[in-house]
Amino acid sequence: MVYLTRKAEFAASHYYNNPKFSAEENQRIFGKCNNPHGHGHNYTLEVTVKGKVNPQTGFVVDLKDLKETMNREVLDAMDHRFLNKEVPEFFDRIPTTENLAIVIWQRLEPKLKAAQLHRVRVYETPDLFADFYGEA
Question: 122 pairs with which residues across the strands?
Answer without folding.
Answer: 45
